[in-house]
Design brief:
Elements: H1 35-38, E1 49-51, H2 57-63, E2 70-75, H3 80-95, E3 101-106, H4 112-116, E4 124-129, E5 132-138, H5 143-154, H6 162-177, H7 181-194, H8 199-211, H9 215-223, H10 227-230, H11 233-248, H12 254-263, H13 268-281, H14 284-297, H15 305-317, H16 322-336
Parallel strand pairs: 1-3, 2-3
Antiparallel strand pairs: 2-4, 4-5
C-alpha cells in the first residue's frame, strides 16, 4: 500500500492520515486470537478477534463498525512482516478491553476487498468507524505505535473513578465546543468503556456525531439505548434535536421559502418552515427571529405554533445558550408588554 494508488496516503511503516471517528459505546468480552497466531478458525460475532471473508465483510466490518471501531488486518501466509505484526496487534486489541475489534482478512483467499481499497503492500491495517474507513497504517509497527493508533481511533483507556470520569467529560465538552470532534468523540467513547450507560457521555457523543454531519449515527446510538437511559434529560434534548433535523429535511428548499417570503411577508407557514431549517443549520438568531416575527404578526397562527416551536428550540439549545437568553428576553417582551 504505497504511492499514488494508496487512497489513505502515508508510507511503509507509517500511519495514514485520519478523519473523524466515533468509538464504541459498549465494551465487548475478550476473545481468542485469530488463525495466523493460533491456528483457530473464524471466531464468533461477539469476539474481539475474528477472521472474515469477502461475503462476511459487510457484516463483520461495515455494520459492526457502526457500533464499535473495527480494525481490519490484511495479511497473507507468506508475509513475514504479517507474522511479526499479528501477535503485537492481537495483544494490544485484547488489552484495549473492548474499545476496538480486530477482523483479519487473508488476501490470498479474499483479494477483492484489498483491491478495492487500493492495498498494494501488506501487512496493512485499516480502521473502520461508522461504516467507513477512517485511518490506517502499513508495516509491522512496534507495540507502542499500535497502542497509540488504537487510542486515537477508540479513545484512551481511563480509570473508572468518578473524579477521573468527570475530568474526562469536562475535557471532552471543551473539545466539542472547539470543534475538535474526533478528539471529543474519543474521550466520550473512553468514558463509555468504563460506564456504558453514562448519559452525559452518550449525549456528548451523539452531539459530536451530529456536529460532524453524521446524524444517522447519532440516531442509531440513541435507538440502541434502554428506555430508562433515553429518559435522561441530556439524551431527551439530543433526541429532540435529531427530530428537528429529520423534520427540516422534509420542509423543502430554503431558498424557495425565502423567495416566498419576499413575495408575501405574511406567509407564516413558509416562515415557520424556514425557522426550522435555519435552526438545524445552526443559525439560531435567524431561526428565533422568524418565530418572533410570526408572533408579532399573528399570535393565533397554527394555535400559537411559533411560540411552541421557540420553546422547543430553547430545550435543545439549553438555558444558558446566548441565543436562548436573547430570544427568551424578546419573547417575554412580546408576551407581557
Amino acid at each position: 500500500m504505497s504511492g499514488s494508488n494508496n487512497p489513505y496516503g502515508g508510507s511503509f511503516g507509517t500511519q495514514m492520515t485520519a478523519s473523524a471517528s466515533y468509538g464504541a459505546a459498549k465494551p465487548a468480552a475478550a476473545a481468542p486470537s485469530g488463525p495466523s497466531s493460533s491456528g483457530a478458525g473464524a471466531s464468533g460475532a461477539g469476539e474481539l478477534i475474528k477472521d472474515t471473508t469477502t461475503a462476511g465483510f459487510a457484516r463483520d466490518v461495515m455494520e459492526a463498525s457502526r457500533h464499535q471501531p473495527v480494525l481490519v488486518d490484511f495479511w497473507a501466509p507468506w508475509c513475514g512482516p504479517c507474522k511479526q505484526l499479528t501477535p503485537v496487534i492481537e495483544k494490544v486489541v485484547r488489552e484495549a478491553g473492548g474499545r476496538v475489534r480486530l477482523v483479519k482478512m487473508n488476501i490470498d483467499e479474499h483479494p477483492s476487498i484489498a483491491g478495492q481499497l487500493g492495498i498494494q503492500s501488506i501487512p496493512a491495517v485499516i480502521a473502520f468507524s461508522g461504516g467507513r474507513p477512517v485511518d490506517g497504517f502499513m508495516g509491522a509497527l512496534p507495540e507502542s505505535q499500535v497502542r497509540e493508533f488504537i487510542d486515537r481511533i477508540a479513545g484512551p483507556a481511563i480509570d473508572a473513578g468518578a473524579e477521573e470520569i468527570a475530568a474526562v467529560l469536562a475535557e471532552a465538552k471543551v473539545l466539542a465546543e472547539e470543534g475538535a470532534h474526533e478528539e471529543a468523540a474519543g474521550l466520550y467513547s473512553a468514558v463509555l468503556q468504563a460506564e456504558p450507560e453514562n448519559a452525559e457521555a452518550l449525549a456528548g457523543l451523539a452531539q459530536v456525531m451530529i456536529a460532524a454531519g453524521a446524524p444517522e449515527q447519532a440516531r442509531a446510538l440513541l435507538d440502541d439505548l434502554p428506555e430508562a437511559v433515553k429518559a435522561e434529560a441530556g439524551l431527551v434534548a439530543v433526541a429532540k434535536k435529531l427530530g428537528q433535523i429529520e423534520e427540516a429535511r422534509k420542509l423543502g428548499d430554503p431558498n424557495a421559502l425565502e423567495r416566498a417570503l419576499a413575495e408575501n411577508p405574511e406567509d407564516h407557514e413558509a416562515r415557520l418552515k424556514l425557522a426550522k431549517i435555519r435552526n438545524v443549520e445552526g443559525d439560531r438568531t435567524a431561526a428565533a427571529e422568524h418565530l418572533l416575527t410570526i408572533m408579532r404578526k399573528d399570535r393565533s397562527f397554527g394555535e400559537d405554533a411559533a411560540r411552541r416551536e421557540l420553546l422547543q428550540f430553547f430545550e435543545v439549545w439549553g438555558p444558558t445558550d446566548p441565543a436562548t437568553i436573547a430570544a427568551r428576553r424578546r419573547l417575554s417582551a412580546l408576551l407581557f408588554s
